[in-house]
Design goal:
2 copies of one chain form a homodimer. By secondary structure, chain A is an alpha/beta fold. The first copy, chain A, is built from 10 helices and 9 strands. A 6-stranded parallel sheet of chain A has the order 1-9-8-7-5-6. In chain A, strands 3-2-4 form a 3-stranded parallel sheet, with helices on both faces. In chain A, helix 2 links the parallel strand 2 and strand 3. In chain A, helix 1 packs parallel to helix 10, helix 6 packs across helix 7 and helix 6 packs across helix 10.
Chain lengths: 283, 283
Amino acid sequence: MTETWLLDGNRVAAAIKEDLAHRIQGLAARGIVPCLATILVGDDPSSATYVRMKGNMCRRLGMQSVRVDLPAETTTEELIAAIHKLNGDSQVHGILLQHPVPSHIDERAAFEAIRIDKDVDGVTTLGFAQNAFGFADYPSCTPAAIMAILDDYNIPIEGKHAVVIGRSPILGKPVSAMLLNRHATVTTCHSRTARLDEIVRLGDIVVAAVGKPRFVQGDWIKPGAVVIDAGYNEGNIGDVDYESCFPHAAAITPVPAGVGPVTIAILLKHTVEAAERQARSIR
Amino acid sequence: MTETWLLDGNRVAAAIKEDLAHRIQGLAARGIVPCLATILVGDDPSSATYVRMKGNMCRRLGMQSVRVDLPAETTTEELIAAIHKLNGDSQVHGILLQHPVPSHIDERAAFEAIRIDKDVDGVTTLGFAQNAFGFADYPSCTPAAIMAILDDYNIPIEGKHAVVIGRSPILGKPVSAMLLNRHATVTTCHSRTARLDEIVRLGDIVVAAVGKPRFVQGDWIKPGAVVIDAGYNEGNIGDVDYESCFPHAAAITPVPAGVGPVTIAILLKHTVEAAERQARSIR
């Protein structure tokens, strides 16, 4: 039996950040500091952790981060007003609204309020469609991170059968679109899929984006498949039952240190690109 | 062996148009005549036929149709200017740019120029994304026609495996999204799909949207599957090899008189709905 590759997200993220460090220096020489604004509504502890990690990573790379903390009782209108303020702030290059927002808020309306050229997380409908058509500046970060990992390890995509478990607007749907645009045959599964194990067993590439801890079982994995775990559940547990899947897979992402760190690196990359675009437009 | 259902597009279209006739009368009583503008660039004979059919159908139902014919050498800028003129014309409720336009024109840019509230053919990126998220006013007409046929015949979609052959922005991609939103497990195939016959054989519902005459073969069809032929090739030939598929299918759309007439009925329905929305907004 051949060895299973461990797809090391930390290594992929480090390579992206090394490239960014140079580009950030280039911008600094022109007096521009790429700035990511993160908006956190309420006090969900894991969301607060994610936002803090993103801010820390910005500072470590010499980028600026602006943090907007809003109380849990913020209305949709108030949230949109906060987004509009960031839209109009020329010092802010990217805007991230941490998902999920409290349930009384119309999250879709809030996402839509983000100006397309600052939508570095790819959450607007326009950003989604541009990604589905293959010409987005900023595809959703987790899907883009998955593609970056596959590409970094030279895993072939064209003509392969990719099975995506999950159909959320920021993960399952856009990663299905990106795999399709790279010429995979793509099956999208979800909670109402019948005989899920049989469907997953068709996959040369399996992407778990379902939000259920250790959901994907080893005997669902076709021997030699590539398994990507995009899940993040409480306690830093993925959607894939790593131990049972590992022996079947040709390659697999761990959790932690798989898709997660690459997602943050992609977010920063998009923010740097937004700053570079702004720099070009004011030259 | 049970009988194969013939999915009669003319019957489904007639039911839609009967409903529309009442609504058009209601609008007429208020002095509003729903109006579809069609733009044809160049002199492709089949495109001219489609545009003429749409115009005729409008008149037969008491709707207005405006036809804009532009020469084959029209530039992207000239085409967009023509679209902007229709955008600004309050008598025009829906705009259809006949696909395909001559290859020197940036078709995507032209589609994007159509105002979202007049995009009755669902061709803008925004309309595409709204459809993928399940809240489009006007999903692409052929995908919507396919869903209308399935619903008219009470064909269950939830939990079924739908295989879509084709991934164009106006057909394969949006119909995949619509089937997914109706809780099918959806596999999208295309020209680079390996072992296409095996993949198609997984489908409880097979949608052929590939643009190759009589492409889908009978032995690709799982016994009892529902086969939808969304192809229209020269000589009014579908993408499905009807004779070989018929014995395997539980239900099948013919060509002609399958998806085609329903597509036109949906286009008119969207135009009537656009007029109704305008009527409500000026009340």
